[in-house]
From TrEMBL:
Pfam families: HSP20
Listed name of the protein: Hsp20/alpha crystallin family protein
All copies of domain SHSP, residue ranges: 27-142
Organism the protein comes from: Thalassorhabdus alkalitolerans
CDD domains documented for this protein: ACD_sHsps-like
Family: Belongs to the small heat shock protein (HSP20) family.
Length: 147
């Protein structure tokens, strides 16, 4: 049995055990770039919560929106420990960008974004009439109290 046949045998086994398309799910995970986020839908608003460890100030993230998409760009700044080598790395650092498809059209006015304890929370009100594209959304940056 050659390497390709072994791989195909493994795929069939994994799909049988997981009852899913193993390689499609695996490739989606491997293609993920940028910080992770959750998108929520409520009656009057959409809410996005994004993990951004290492965000230093409101200048490190930029949000812009059109009625159907939210664009998030920024830079995560943190240093890896000196005199050590990474064994496993999952945390992102450096520049990132994400485009989020919104569950419904949103109002550019009234968008609220706040950063606290490593999480960026963005609230986007449901659109009630035609609005134009908003190029920049300010982020309120709150520092965690030192202990």
């Amino acid at each position: 049995m050659n390497a390709f046949e072994k791989m195909m045998q493994w795929q069939k086994y994994a799909e049988k055990v997981l009852d899913e398309d193993f390689w499609t799910d695996f490739s989606e995970v491997m293609q993920h770039k940028g910080p992770y986020l959750n998108v929520y839908e409520a009656e009057k608003e959409a809410m996005i919560i994004m993990g951004l460890p290492g965000l230093q100030s409101e200048k490190d993230v930029r949000l812009s929106v059109d009625p159907h998409k939210l664009y998030i760009k920024g830079t995560l700044r943190w240093k890896e420990p000196e005199h050590s080598r990474p064994i496993q790395t999952e945390l992102n650092h450096g520049n990132f960008h994400r485009t989020v498809d919104l569950p419904f059209p949103v109002e550019a006015e009234g968008i609220n974004a706040a950063y606290e304890n490593g999480l960026l929370t963005i609230r986007l009100p449901r659109k009630t009439n035609e609005e134009k594209y908003q190029d920049h959304v300010p982020v309120q940056y709150r520092r965690r109290p030192s202990r």
